Amino acid sequence: MSLRTDRVRAVGLLRYRPGVTNEEAKANGPRLIETIKSIPIIQKNLLKYELTFKTERLGTTLASDLGLQEADTGVMVIVEAETHEKIREALTSPEYRKIIAGALENATSMDKYHWFSAEFATVIDK
């Protein structure tokens, strides 16, 4: 296994406020995505910006089938760029911070929203 050298990531993990449903978050997703896509520094610096919503459609959850604890994360954000500096510049821009602060206001609180920088290896990509 080797880490990719052509791009890096940042990963955001969000836990919902009590009472916020996954369906509500997904319903607001398209509007948020369009707004984020319109920010020039996001367009310039990022290669990928993904929102992943926790979904369990089978009778049991994946975590329970694996004998694990349920994840309390409701949304995962994956961002890719050529460098960590480009990610940092985009995500700390005043435009992005303003939009995210407004979007998070109803869904979560800052103590339930976490980010980390990452390097990654692609194991399977069909």
Question: What would you say this structure looks like, in words?
Answer:
This is Stress-response A/B barrel domain-containing protein. With 126 residues, the protein is of the alpha+beta class. The chain has helices at residues 22-37, 40-45, 62-65, 84-91, 94-107; strands at 8-14, 46-53, 75-81, 113-118. A four-stranded antiparallel β-sheet has the order 2-3-1-4. It is globular. The model has no long low-confidence stretch (mean pLDDT 89).
Shape assignment: globular
What percentage of amino acids are in beta strands?
15-25%
Distance between the termini: 17 Å
Low-confidence stretches: none
Structural class: alpha+beta
Protein name: Stress-response A/B barrel domain-containing protein
Organism: Favolaschia claudopus
Task: List its traits.
Stress-response A/B barrel domain-containing protein, 4 strands
